[in-house]
Design goal:
The chain is an alpha/beta fold. Helices cover 38% and strands 19% of the residues. The longest helix has 23 residues. Bound molecules: adenosine-5'-diphosphate.
Length: 381
């Protein structure tokens, strides 16, 4: 107990000095804070079962401010206490313009900690689905759907009953990557019957929309449609549902993530800075919504010339490692940039079907890690 108290005191002073440093940074949102106001930002420090939880007042801060503050705090705390995992929670203490206030104010106990975005949404399980995992990327085009599809197939090969929900409403790639076409049938209870491809039950906006015309819907309609693709589907006993989220951290993603009991998230990024900046945002979104993150997948990690074997880091080198160190999450897999991965997906026969290929092994190892993380996480709850 004495150690815990001493640590808590140390942590408090480190967080204060970190906040004072962050205040100097442009874009922190803290630039005009008086020392007292800054001091009052630290709401609580709680020793959780698996981590230290630092609760910070978020009144008046934008998402970008919170990301910057979170990054700085994690990096400074990580330097001083390399062994200890930390999670930063943001919470409003004052009523907002709509009169919503996040209660309780400090001190907050971990069990009563409200959703840091101020909306307490009741989680709604999907009937007949045991575990939900989400695959996210801040940015589009980094291979999120390629990873989701190959991961789903590889989980199926491990013996799990797997579903894949292609929630990427604006650019659904499920039909192409799995080589299957809609429409989906409706059963006698009015539920959508998922299509089955490569032993995976799949629903996709691509089965509902015409390939040559974009979906032109506003956010609330998209959220409603995604809800239907989760709840109005005859999944019929799934061990794992993989949700391929739309890229970004907008409204649609938030409302989906908030409403589902998610076992964990996988973040996909290339090693390139522009992709990693958005991966940071995706990770912060999950942290703020209290969704566990299993780790990141570095896609298009390295290109090996098929003729001479020379390796080229087309999207940069070491980006995944930096991200993993800064944010204290593991790299679950490094997938090479490889024409066969692209061609296999384009022809509806994802590479993970070709068991012996090294590229397929990378996905099957990823699937093993995810399956293990799910069982560890379930055992803890
Ligand atoms: P996202 O879902 O992030 O928008 P996709 O999975 O649709 O990205 O991938 C974008 C494009 O990149 C696709 O044509 C896909 O086949 C290709 N691709 C993805 N990962 C790889 C890889 N590791 N090697 C080669 N091509 C890839």
């Amino acid at each position: 107990m004495e150690t815990a108290n001493r640590n808590e005191k140390d942590l408090k002073s480190i967080v204060f000095s970190a906040l004072s440093e962050i205040k100097q940074k442009l874009g922190s949102g803290l630039e005009r804070e008086s020392p007292d106001k800054l001091r009052s930002r630290l709401l609580d420090i709680v020793r959780g079962e698996h981590n230290w939880q630092i609760h910070v007042g978020s009144d008046g801060l934008e998402l970008d401010n919170k990301i910057l503050i979170e990054r700085q705090l994690l990096s400074q705390l990580g330097e001083k206490f390399p062994q200890d995992p930390f999670t930063i929670y943001f919470r409003r203490t004052q009523a907002d313009a709509k009169g919503n206030k996040q209660a309780p104010t400090s001190p907050v106990s971990i069990n009563t900690s409200p959703n840091p975005f101020g909306i307490n949404v009741r989680k709604r399980p999907i009937p007949e689905v045991k575990n939900i995992i989400v695959v996210a990327s801040g940015k589009g085009g980094v291979g999120k759907s390629t990873v989701s599809t190959n991961l789903a197939i590889s989980l199926g090969k491990l013996g799990h009953k797997v579903g894949l929900m292609d929630a990427d409403v604006y650019g659904p790639s499920g039909p192409t990557m799995l080589g299957t076409k809609g429409p989906m049938e409706i059963d006698e209870d009015g539920k959508l019957i998922p299509l089955i491809a490569h032993n995976v039950k799949v629903v996709s906006f691509g089965f509902l929309s015409d390939a040559y015309h974009p979906v032109i819907w506003r956010g609330p309609l998209v959220s409603k449609a995604i809800e239907q693709l989760c709840f109005d589907v005859a999944w019929k006993e799934l061990d794992i549902l993989v949700i391929d989220l739309p890229p970004g951290t907008g409204d649609v993603q938030l409302s989906l993530i908030e409403s589902l009991p998610i076992e964990g998230a996988v973040i996909v990024s290339t090693p390139q800075d522009v992709a990693l900046i958005d991966a940071h945002k995706a990770l912060s979104m999950f942290n703020n919504l209290n969704v566990p993150v299993f780790g990141m997948v570095e896609n298009m990690s390295v290109f090996a010339c098929p003729n001479c074997g020379h390796e080229e880091h087309i999207f940069g080198e070491g980006g995944g490692e930096d991200f993993s160190k800064q944010r204290n999450i593991p790299i679950l897999a490094k997938i090479p940039l490889d024409a066969s991965i692209r061609m296999a997906c384009d022809t509806g026969q994802p590479i993970s079907l070709q068991k012996r290929r090294p590229q397929a092994k990378a996905f099957s190892m990823l699937a093993e890690k995810i399956a293990l993380s799910i069982s560890n996480h379930s055992a803890e709850h």
